[in-house]
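dumping this here before i forget
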Amino acid sequence: MVNQRMKILAPVLIVLLFILAVGMPVMAAGGPRVVDLANVLSPADESALEQKATEIGAKFNMDLVIVTTNDTGGRSAMDFADDYFDYNGYGVGDSRDGALFLIDFANRQTWISTSGDKTIEALTDAQIENILDDVYAGNKMSSGDYAGAAEAFLTSTQKVLQGNTFSLIDGLLGLITSGATGLGFFASTKNSYKGKPKPNIFEYRGNSIVSMGLVTDNLVNQFTTQRVIAVPTSNNNRPFGGGGSSTHTSSSGRTHGGGGRGF
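structure:
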């Protein structure tokens, strides 16, 4: 009995070990998470934002970056944000997941650039607008509270990510619970079938009457109907479904989502 249970539990344990292995956060080798090129943040603000961005990024396996600048080299806020993320080694995993929040004083605009399949899917166009609402709430941008605006970006982004994912512990508990339920059902079903076999109530071999006849199907007419079916096409530069993520290609050739707002 013990050996039989171990044979059943062994695949479950292997799956759990696999989840633990792939669920560990792997941080990218990019630079600092807070880059104050415009010198509008105090050292204390930079330190606090760096710590929070790192903690949230580690929890969700992505890079969260905050950049301020007063010189984009003639580029738009979108292009500058995408390029800064791409060319400074940010992003976690093969798809380089992460998001960059830019405060651009040259174009007087904030911009959120998203990268990677998981991040782009989680931070939809609508969610980015909600995050920007939190960034601008309380007149933080107009009053010069740029640290508060950056902190609001991190806090709001964390809420969105928590609503789109579940923790590793939750996943393990769910897997264990479902596995235990399945094993219990298997055991109870197996026990219910124990006992002596019952004879057939109806002896079909001795009592059945079979009449074999010849049945012929004649094909009278044959018609062929042709119909043109239109196949919808997709456009990666437009939101999809009931509220997806519009995307574009940066100068590095990578795919980004995002959105911004003037101040």
